[in-house]
Amino acid sequence: MATNMIAESAPTQAEFCPEGTAAKVWEALHANPAASVTTIAEAAGVSRPTATKALAGFAEAGRAVRTPGGRTDKGRALPDTWASVPSVTQANADATVSSEIDAEAPDTADAPTDTPTAPADPDAATQDDANAQEDTSAPTAAMSIQDAMRILEQEADRRAIAEAELARALAEEEARRQQAAEALAKARMIEDSRRALTDLLNAVTTTYAALLADDETAFTTGLEAIYAGTTDVRKAARITQPKSNGNTATWGSSRGDRNAPRPLRPDVLAHLIKHPDLAFTANEIAKVLKRSSGAVANALDTLAKNGEAQLVSERPNRFRAAKPEDA
Q1: What is the pLDDT of residues 189-246, one digit of tens each?
Q2: Considering the entire predicted model, what is its pTM?
Q3: b/e for 257-295, b at 16 or more Cβ within 10 A?
Q4: How far apart are CA 51 and CA 158, in angstroms?
Q5: Across-strand partners of 244?
């Protein structure tokens, strides 16, 4: 009867029963006392952030205590450990069991003892309160530092991803602009080539008509237009030819390409025909055409051999256009 009375008079409180993933963490915490967050997370089958959040909630409810891990002799950081705090109901149950045992045990002395009770030391109580406050504040401070480190790591990862995305976007934009510039340059070069060919065709047609009409002045003027048009066509052709760049061909200027130099003899002959009554040295023609005197001299010698020019004097050599009666 005494046992039943003691059990009924014991105070009761609602059991601490978390739900969802927190319940799994709570069970893992009970099964693994003084374990790290990683161990508890693995035992509960949840992620480490989820376990950390649940343990923080247990600590705020006063149902878990966090112990800093400290460092090894070599200075390596050790993980913090967590332990559960017994519930009030469990403590009351333990007290009930102890009361039952005391009730069933035989009384060894009927008379109460007169042993005086030592008065409580107020300084000691104050010190215990201070230690308790330090114990409760230490986990909070450690948790705040860990959260800060986690946030910094996440921010570093986010920045790295953002920089990579930005670099990729810039590369794509640069490639797009390069393609647009090449397409525009190609269109301009094709238009220049069409105009040069059209002008050359017009000059050839006009000169051919002057030849049939035996119009020497118009024919000479037409030849000069043909030479000029030929130069424009060659210039446009050199610019519009595709340049090989690895396995792809790109359109652009080929200025500076020494593989296809501009012929010089037509320009030299055109200058002589333009001034049929005058004789020129190679140096004089070179200054007008802005070419080297040696190249002009070679062109004059070739024209003289072909009968298109005539050597009229030596030292210095002077040439003029060959006339029909000279031929």
Answers
A1: 888 888 888 988 998 999 999 888 988 888 888 888 898 888 888 877 665 555 555 5
A2: 0.29
A3: eeeeeeebbbbbbbbbbeeeeebbbbebbbeebebeeeb
A4: 23
A5: 249
